[in-house]
Design a protein that fits this description.
Length: 241
């Protein structure tokens, strides 16, 4: 298992945790209803329309996230000679974002509302893509700290292909639970009602992940972790990686 594989796993996990954040998860039914133009009762009977619109919504935010990943990578390449210091300074920034999610202190920029509201989405499938792009561009209070951590780690890699893959993995981590929730909206709402009290722990889990990644970046231990995990990986699996 190589360091790149660990980075993809971290980015995917960060995407899942972004979906589970306390101010994204409760609004999933509203987003599903908005992008399909149907009530939740109709959504349950129109799986095809839900799937198509959900995939287009995912496409919208994936395009924005990958563009951000490419930008972060380009910035990292501009300072390639200072790559070690970028990793250390970036690690400190990631730890700060993690501590914010853990509730250690507040950051005013993330506390203010940044959502982009789209009053009417009556431009067909293209409108659904635009809503997905608006979601990615404007939801900083919820996904900003986690996304910022992923982008900082991406900038330290200074590799365009890897940067795009990291943000694609993040997008997939956010997309898969969204698609499942949209296609099974009734079960999602029942589960959300049951486990709503546990949402605060999702934010703390995100914070712990970022603090851990930040420490690895500061100490340059990502490669060490990869080597350690490779030692415990079965040969049959290693041959496939």
């Amino acid at each position: 298992m190589q360091t790149a594989s660990i980075g993809l796993g971290i980015s995917f996990t960060a995407g899942v945790l972004s979906f589970l954040s306390p101010c994204v998860l409760p609004l999933i039914p509203s987003y599903v209803s908005f992008i399909t133009g149907m009530s939740l009762d109709d959504v349950q009977r129109s799986r095809r329309a839900v799937l198509v619109n959900s995939l287009l919504f995912v496409l919208g935010f994936t395009l924005v996230f990958m563009a951000l990943g490419a930008t972060a990578t380009v910035v990292g390449r501009m300072f390639h000679q200072q790559r070690a210091w970028i990793g250390r300074v970036g690690g400190i920034l990631v730890i700060v974002l993690g501590l914010y999610l853990l509730g250690v202190f507040n950051i005013g920029a993330f506390a203010r509302e940044r959502r982009v509201h789209v009053a009417n989405k009556r431009v067909g499938y293209f409108g659904t893509v635009l809503v997905g792009m608006a979601f990615a561009a404007g939801w900083t209070p919820c996904i900003g700290p986690i996304l910022g951590g992923v982008l900082t780690y991406t900038a330290s890699s200074a590799d365009l292909n890897r940067g795009l893959l990291l943000l694609f993995a993040y997008s997939i981590g956010l997309a898969i639970p969204f698609l499942l929730a949209a296609l099974m909206i009734e079960r999602f709402m029942a589960a959300f009602t049951r486990y709503r009290a546990a949402l605060k722990w999702m934010s703390r889990a995100s914070g712990a992940l970022l603090v851990g990644v930040g420490l690895l970046m500061i100490t340059g231990s990502m490669t060490v972790l990869s080597t350690w995990m490779q030692r415990w990986t079965p040969d049959a699996l290693l041959n496939r990686l």
